[in-house]
């Protein structure tokens, strides 16, 4: 399943991307139960399939099973003209152009990123291959969704792109062994670790250059892990104006998901909705001669096999 956070008439909710449709999973489950005469339909929907993504992840497999059941009900109902009209009228089903996709996890509890996690990227920056994961954070002010603009701030024009594969935690855990790590992963998404390079390198701590407003595009969906048989064999590329600037595969990651989860969970409790972005491959702008910064009017396009496409325009703040 591909879960999305979407906005409709200014209200954010969670949907399932189903071909060209978006199914509001909370309303779908409530409608299904009400159709069966369950007097607790809406309370059950709020408990198992709430209208925000972290709540759904916290509900665990019970919530995901409820979504699967509700989506099956909707697909069957759409075969009936009268029922289809009712579902559309009641805000259960939308066409893609009726809504606006947001970041799938708009406000992650933790937003953790790995640096220098592709060998070719470490080499192009002239830094040694790390022996343990190099970690830093972004904050929620930086998170935007598909189609939202990456803003060039007044403070700097040295704004760079970084295409990244990210995974999202689905279960609370600490001291997780690497052979159990994927049991704690809900699914995967795309992140653009936009970076203000002069601020990033002004000290040895990268955070200040990583968390300007709008500098963490994320999306388009949270693709649940059962749709991705091998997350460590996904083609990844970033283009601007048709020019391929980054091209790699997640099989090139130095620290893969199991090692990363094991290492992080020694330090902190991981919780549903935590987003962990695994680093970027070679081809970033600041290593080019001359440096290649993002410019207003451009559109950054990142595609990862099985996860879709994340596109964001660039604009002046």
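^ Assign residues to that structure.
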């Amino acid at each position: 399943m591909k879960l999305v956070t979407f906005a409709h008439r200014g209200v954010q909710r969670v949907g399932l991307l189903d071909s060209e449709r978006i199914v509001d999973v909370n309303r779908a489950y409530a409608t299904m139960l009400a159709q069966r005469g369950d007097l607790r339909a809406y309370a059950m929907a709020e408990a198992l399939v709430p209208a925000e993504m972290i709540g759904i992840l916290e509900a665990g497999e019970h919530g995901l099973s409820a979504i699967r059941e509700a989506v099956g009900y909707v697909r069957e109902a759409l075969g009936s003209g009268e029922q289809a009209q009712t579902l559309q009228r009641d805000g259960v089903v939308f066409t893609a152009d009726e809504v606006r996709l947001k970041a799938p996890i708009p406000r992650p509890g933790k937003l953790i990123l790995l640096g220098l996690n592709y060998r070719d990227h470490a080499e192009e920056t002239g830094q040694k291959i790390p022996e343990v994961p190099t970690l830093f954070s972004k904050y929620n002010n930086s998170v935007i969704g598909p189609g939202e603009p990456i803003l060039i701030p007044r403070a700097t024009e040295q704004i760079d792109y970084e295409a990244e594969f990210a995974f999202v935690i689905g279960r609370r855990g600490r001291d997780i062994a690497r052979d159990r790590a994927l049991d704690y992963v809900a699914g995967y998404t795309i992140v653009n670790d936009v970076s203000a390079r002069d601020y990033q390198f002004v000290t040895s701590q990268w955070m200040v250059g990583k968390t300007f407003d709008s500098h963490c595009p994320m999306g388009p969906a949270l693709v649940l892990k059962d749709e991705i048989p091998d997350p460590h064999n996904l083609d990844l590329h970033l283009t601007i104006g048709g020019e391929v600037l980054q091209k790699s595969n997640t099989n090139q990651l130095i620290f893969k998901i199991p090692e990363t989860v094991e290492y992080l969970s020694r330090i902190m409790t991981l919780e549903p909705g935590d987003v962990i972005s695994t680093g970027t491959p070679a081809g970033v702008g600041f290593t080019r001669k001359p440096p290649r910064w993002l410019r207003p009017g451009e559109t950054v396009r990142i595609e990862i096999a099985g996860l879709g496409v994340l596109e964001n325009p660039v604009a002046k703040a």
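The chain has two domains: 2-101, 103-316.
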